[in-house]
Amino acid sequence: MEQGGIALIILILALVARRSALSMLLTAVMFLLAFLAQSFLADLGGSNAFFGGLHALDGLAILRIAGYLYGWSRRHRSWPQ
Q: What phi and psi, each to the nearest 5 degrees, are found at residue 39?
C-alpha cells in the first residue's frame, strides 16, 4: 500500500476516535501532504532540483507530524499502563 493509502487509513481512524481537534487537523494535513503533495512534487522533482528538494522536505514534514501524533497519543492514552 502506498504512503497516501496509509495516511487515509490513519485519517479515518482519527476521525472515528475524535480524540482532539488538533489530532484530527494534523492527521488531515498529513494526509494531504502524503497523498497530494508527495506525488505532485515527485513528478516535478524529476526534472527540477528545487522541486526535488521540496519533495524531500515534504517527506520530513510528514515524518514530523506522524512522530508528534504518536507522542501525543502515548501521553494521552485512556487505558492504564
A: -65, -45
